[in-house]
Amino acid sequence: MSTTAFAHWPSELRSELDALTANPRVGSRLLLEDEHTRIWEIRLGPGERIPFHRHVLDYVWVCVSGGTAISRDGDGVIHDIRYAVGETRRLSFAAGESMIHDLENTGSDDLVFTTFEYLASANAPLALPGDAPAP
Is the CB of residue 115 less than 8 Å from the CB of residue 29? Predict the structure, then answer.
């Protein structure tokens, strides 16, 4: 991790990134987990954020609400993003690849996503902590 890439980050965010490099909670709430898929909801009010988390599984996200956000990635880059209602993306990771980031709602309305993680991906799923609800 290059220290210059993170020079403009508050120390609390750098510490959180270091502490959560293996955080598997890619959403605010686990809606369903079965033998094929984990389905997550992200619901962020204005100014709220989901902490850093690591994606290792292939996944699809759908923006339910539309809105604006910033996302900080594991390389220190901050992305300003505008999401459209219904915008959908698919991301895929080869064996050993992953992505870490957070997401912060910078808009004036709730920002809502549904994320579908596919357990049959090139990487094994990260274990969920004991506090993740079993559907």
Answer: no
Q: In what order do the strands lie in the sheet with 29-33?
A: 29-33, 37-44, 111-118, 58-63, 88-91
| CA pair distance 102, 51, nearest whole angstrom | 5
Alpha carbon 79 to its chain's center: 13
Task: Produce one character per residue of 112-131: b if its CB has 16 or more CB atoms within 10 Å, e if not.
Answer: bbbbbbeeebeeeebeeeee
- In single-letter form, the type of residue at position 115 comes to T
Sign of CA dihedral 81, 61, 127, 129: positive
Q: pLDDT tens-digit profile of 28-63?
A: 999 999 999 999 999 999 999 999 999 999 999 999
DSSP, res 111: E
Give the start-end residues of each E strand in 1-135: 29-33, 37-44, 49-55, 58-63, 67-72, 78-83, 88-91, 99-105, 111-118
* Pairwise CA distance, residues 82 & 54, whole Å: 22
pTM over 0.70: yes
